């Protein structure tokens, strides 16, 4: 377990010393990808981590079509889409996935993804990638509260505040904890706060916390989004900071929204990329990875308020524009951030996903 300030952590994360380099954005790879003609993605909302602009940039640079499946899917849905489309070369078979950290090793173990090391492999921290190249971290953020200031007069500053009578029928997760990594991590973060930092107890304590919130009538069992916040259905949403900040920009003050990083239980979550073992367009998939992990792609995520996984390397080389850093919350807000290990995340995911309905008794509608 690590506690890391997320703005400038150049000296904290060690970089791997060597790796077999890939084709990069070579003429050969570009030609092979163009011959395939298209790329199929899944679960990439355009307002998530700046993906709208990232996808547009990839299309403009290489002239490939991008077939976007089910933007609102969760990590488990992405894995199921690979399983359901083994041998299918049609438009419903995803070439690439973007999933929560704990889903990477399990997908590898099930033979659902294939190895590929991008040319910038050396600048991806060892702790955020599979040594054999089956999956690799792409960006990270922390759990935050997004609040409709027209409807909520007292801003919550920590997880325990969400149990206040003032927040009756107000608090929502940004997904279903049985399938969506964002929701699982929200429950985990609440539990980490309740357990006073004991990661081993965070899953069970998170379920107890939401069971109490549901019993009090504060929990709203629908998927929180910018639209539901604006409509007043979910005045408080628990979501990744980059999603909340992006939604705040989209709302543009109608209604006014505030994004708050809680004082405790600050959980940082890494998402990872991988190529399907059955990808109909494997070269387009590799080119997509090369683009995402290039300086251009990484800064595209930062524009969407995500901390790109190569943040440290880019910062060290002076490649991050000051105006992008200025748009992020103050560095001190991230100081208590905890990066759970793969084992800790996996254990918590199993507890939360399997016991949510039984313990909390509130299935979240999409």
Q: So what's the overall shape?
A: globular
Q: So how many helices?
A: 13
CATH architecture of the largest domain: 3-Layer(aba) Sandwich
Round the mean pLDDT to the nearest integer and report it: 90
Radius of gyration: 20 Å
SSE sequence, one letter per element = EHEHEHEHEEEHHHEHEEHHEHHEH
Number of strands: 12
Uncertain stretches: 1-22
The largest β sheet comes out as: 8 strands, mixed
**How many angstroms separate the termini?**
32 Å
Describe the structure.
- With 366 residues, the chain is α+β, with helices and mostly antiparallel strands.
- The chain has 2 domains: 13-139 and 271-329, D-Maltodextrin-Binding Protein, domain 2, CATH 3.40.190.10; 141-267 and 335-359, Periplasmic binding protein-like II (D-Maltodextrin-Binding Protein, domain 2).
- Helix content is 37%, strand content 16%.
- The chain has helices at residues 27-36, 51-62, 75-84, 103-109, 181-194, 202-216, 226-231, 241-251, 282-292, 295-303, 311-316, 322-326, 342-359; strands at 2-3, 38-42, 65-69, 96-100, 113-114, 136-148, 171-173, 236-240, 257-260, 268-276, 307-308, 338-339.
- The strands form 3 sheets. Strands 4, 5, 6, 7, 8, 9, 10 and 11 form an 8-stranded mixed sheet that branches.
- The longest helix is centred in the C-terminal third of the chain and has 18 residues, at 342-359.
